Task: structure prediction
Amino acid sequence: MHWSTSYPLTTPSVRLARLHTRRHLTLWNWPGDIEDAVLVTSELVANAVRHGRLPGHELWLRMAVDEEEKNELTIDVSDPVRTLPVIRPESDEAEGGRGLLIVSGVAASLDWFLRDDLGKTVRARLACGSFQLTRG
Result:
């Protein structure tokens, strides 16, 4: 199962992404922690809105559940800016900027890559049940 959509690179998109994530995972009867998935989506979309703005472009959200196991959820958020994210340490005194730290604490894995055409994708994977991914 998978679903994807685009959103404007504006603050209201964060709320819409949370609503859509909760709705789709509920409809799919995903057995994982839906609130964790909503939190991850919210943080990744908020980062794209804050750091990935480029006039005339949107962000993309894609969610996919592993077809065989049904226990791994992949959340991809793509934006048009090619600058790769940085996870700030907890000891950093700066206001904000800890979204990826939160995501890395909830997700089984977190990574990012440049896209061939434009921008980058930040990918988080969440697992449920006895299945666990290794962080890397």
